[in-house]
């Protein structure tokens, strides 16, 4: 299976520190607490975290008594996760090839959907997650949508958008191609500079893709706290 060229270089030794400086991990505990209030997952349930990155969500869930399995294609991220939480099962594999189920829930958090080479492969990932979910089990996704990207960026035209910000010594330069639905983000911290490419979807596109993958009972929220949908907030989807 094809892996985007940017993935291996982006998730290296500098990735974790760069995003820590951006404050991306500050709400991890609260996010998981809110998620578990929003979607009832019984203690001890088996949860698939895909992709798991360096395991920050998996670690919190493990401490709460859940049986977590993490999946990530990045060798560095899986190695780091295993160092931090050796008691958790982490797999270095593509998100389209998760371990055998059944899982009681699947989580896909932090705009970790849309990184595969094509839309059809994103759909393939959704189908793979559905197959390893037990009947009625929830898939929980949290991500930036096209609506959110358009609402929160500095310069927006009919076909594109862009922004540049500096936070705690990290510069982010982002460009958006609304026609192709692509977000290209470059993060620079000293000598460390990496670029990632994400395919963004509208909320209606995500709903249709989930239905095509075999999910039903799809609910959309404006955050883990269950708030109403607004364009200036990221989207949480719960599908069964």
Automatic annotation (TrEMBL):
Superkingdom per UniProt: Bacteria
Pfam families assigned to the protein according to its UniProt record, in alphabetical order: Methyltransf_25
Keyword annotations: Methyltransferase, Transferase
GO molecular function: methyltransferase activity
Domain Methyltransferase stretches: 47-137
Upper classification of the organism: Bacteria, Bacillati, Actinomycetota, Actinomycetes, Mycobacteriales
Organism per entry: Nocardia uniformis
InterPro entries, alphabetized: Methyltransf_25, SAM-dependent_MTases_sf
Record GO biological process: methylation
Protein name (record): Methyltransferase domain-containing protein
Keyword Calcium found: no
PANTHER family linked: METHYLTRANSFERASE
């Amino acid at each position: 299976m094809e892996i985007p060229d940017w993935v291996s270089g982006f998730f290296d030794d500098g990735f974790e520190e760069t995003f820590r400086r951006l404050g991306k991990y500050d709400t991890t505990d609260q996010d998981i607490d809110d998620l578990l209030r929003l979607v009832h997952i019984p203690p001890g349930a088996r949860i698939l975290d895909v992709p798991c990155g360096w395991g920050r969500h998996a670690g919190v869930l493990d401490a709460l008594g859940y049986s977590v399995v993490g999946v990530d294609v990045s060798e560095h991220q899986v190695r780091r996760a295993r160092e931090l939480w050796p008691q958790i099962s982490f797999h270095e594999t593509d998100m389209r090839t998760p371990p055998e189920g059944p899982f009681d829930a699947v989580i896909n958090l932090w705009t970790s959907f849309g990184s595969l080479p094509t839309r059809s492969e994103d759909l393939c990932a959704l189908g793979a997650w559905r197959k390893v979910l037990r009947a009625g089990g929830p898939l929980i996704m949290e991500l930036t949508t096209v609506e959110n990207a358009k609402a929160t960026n500095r310069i927006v035209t009919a076909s594109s958008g862009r922004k540049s910000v500096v936070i705690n010594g990290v510069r982010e330069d982002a460009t958006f191609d609304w026609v192709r639905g692509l977000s290209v983000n470059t993060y620079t911290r000293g000598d460390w500079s990496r670029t990632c490419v994400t395919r963004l979807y509208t909320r209606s596109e995500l709903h249709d893709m989930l239905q095509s993958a075999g999910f039903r009972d799809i609910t959309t929220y404006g955050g883990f706290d269950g708030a109403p949908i607004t364009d200036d907030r990221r989207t949480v989807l719960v599908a069964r």
